Amino acid sequence: MATDDYNYEFFNVTFPVEWVAHVEINRPEKMNAFKEVMWLNISSIFKRLSHDPAVRAVILTGAGDRAFTAGLDVQAASEGILSDKPDGVDGARKANGIRRHIVEFQDCITNIEKCEKPVIAVLHGISFGLALDMSLACDIRLSTSDTRFSVKEVDIGLAADIGTLSRLPRAVGNQSWVKEVALSARIFGSEEALRVGLVSGVYKDKKEAVAEGLKLASLIASKSPVAVLGTKEILNYSRDKTIADGLNYTAIWNAAMLQTQDVKDAMLSGLQRRTPKFAKL
């Protein structure tokens, strides 16, 4: 089992079943809205989980019943990066500082996507703005029947800049729908999210959705960690490449990764009708 010293402010990290980590955003009194320390902490958590040999799958949820996350803590941001207080810095230098800040926050969310272990997001309640940035960096998205989604950024005067505008078109494959929701910031529900392919499952309530997420994470974690790592890596690489590029990368990857005891153990377990046990990665 993984170590239990994942102590990060505004997050609970637990290990409810073997090989599975549960990351819970824990600021329910503010509907799990993000301020700066939370971006940095979620980045650190997923970098650690990526290399933790006792973790093979991760589930990401939000604490409380009201929201997965309401997105950016606008009040905190207005006192920080979005502050309009005069500072005597010229436009170019101020722009470069803002650019560095945006890139840092982009990297924080991209570290969820870079995590070697599959990540399942369970969205519920209010899931605005950053909720989409984060969940689109995850591998699998589940939601509840009452989830309310919104690409909310135009309502606070900016273009979404942490990943949604880059990842959402690839996730759903419908440019007209993507532009509609991104330009209007309208709220949409889980049935629509399921129809366009944003989520792969909708469940009655948070309890049921989290249970299903843990069940799926446990199933994934029961597979060869070498095979799971390779599958995620190849899918992510191939998403933005030609088929020929993807096939070539797959051949090179598996030239190394087929040289594992996991293949023999998995094949023999099928023939012998037993549950395979795989070494840590």
Automatic annotation (TrEMBL):
The entry's keywords: Acetylation, Fatty acid metabolism, Isomerase, Lipid metabolism, Peroxisome, Virulence
Pfam family, one: ECH_1
GO MF, one annotated term: delta(3,5)-delta(2,4)-dienoyl-CoA isomerase activity
Pathway: Lipid metabolism; fatty acid beta-oxidation; Mycotoxin biosynthesis
Organism listed in the record: Pleomassaria siparia CBS 279.74
GO biological process, one term: fatty acid beta-oxidation
UniProt name for this protein: ClpP/crotonase
GO cellular component: mitochondrion; peroxisome
Family: Belongs to the enoyl-CoA hydratase/isomerase family.
Cell location: Peroxisome
InterPro entries noted in UniProt: ClpP/crotonase-like_dom_sf, Ech1-like, Enoyl-CoA_hydra/iso, Enoyl-CoA_hydra_C
Gene3D superfamilies: 2-enoyl-CoA Hydratase, Chain A, domain 1, Lyase 2-enoyl-coa Hydratase, Chain A, domain 2
